[in-house]
Amino acid sequence: MRYLTSLLILLSILIPSSSFADKEAAVDFTLEDVDGGLFSLKEHLGSGPVLIDFWATWCKPCKDAMPYLQKLHEKYSEQGLTLIAVSTDSPRSQSKVKPFIRSRHYTFKVLLDPNSEVLKQLQGRNLPFQVIIDKDGRVVESHTGYSPGDEKILEEKIKGMLLQDEQ
């Protein structure tokens, strides 16, 4: 039984990204940000794609991806991209999130999902987990994990969506 459980965990980690073929409507959510404000997804739809990155301070691949997310934010936010990093740190480790973000000078919005409720609603199981939502509120892509080069694929998808939104 232990072997089977270990195998299932390993497979869930190794299985690459999944796509939402039918463009399901994203679940609206409201979460607290690291500064104590509230962020509602529905208030940020309509102007362009929304990229949601679920991460945690203990997740090395998550932290490896964040500089690239910052570059995407800087490059495309004025064109309509909304980038949100959602920390899934538990209430015990949540106090590490804001200092981590500030020390690296990340300027994208950082939200707190301490019980991983929104992560689960968007079908995420492992970290890092990214979801791209179009301006109409439909999930068009999701991806689990981070490997060098993933950021290039992500940027191409974002650029394509921004070009499509211009038309």
Key structural traits:
alpha/beta; single chain; globular; disordered N terminus; Glutaredoxin; 167 residues
Helix content: 25-40%
pLDDT averaged residue by residue: 87
The counted number of beta strands is 7
CATH class label: Alpha Beta
**Which blocks of ≥5 consecutive residues have pLDDT under 50?**
1-22
Total number of helices: 5
Radius of gyration: 16 Å
CA distance, first residue to last residue: 54 Å
Oligomer: single chain
| Tally of structural domains | 1
- Major sheet, described briefly? 7 strands, mixed
Which percent range describes the beta-strand content? 15-25%
Verbal overview:
The chain is an alpha/beta fold and 167 residues long. The protein has one domain (16-166): Glutaredoxin. It has five helices and seven strands, in the order αβββαβαβαββα. Strands 2-1-5-4-3-6-7 form a seven-stranded mixed β-sheet, with helices on one face. It is globular and about 45 Å long.
Write the layout of secondary structure elements.
Blueprint: H1 2-14, E1 30-33, E2 38-40, E3 50-55, H2 60-76, E4 82-87, H3 97-103, E5 109-112, H4 117-121, E6 129-133, E7 139-144, H5 150-166
Parallel strand pairs: 3-4, 4-5
Antiparallel strand pairs: 1-2, 1-5, 3-6, 6-7
Helix pairs in contact: 2-5
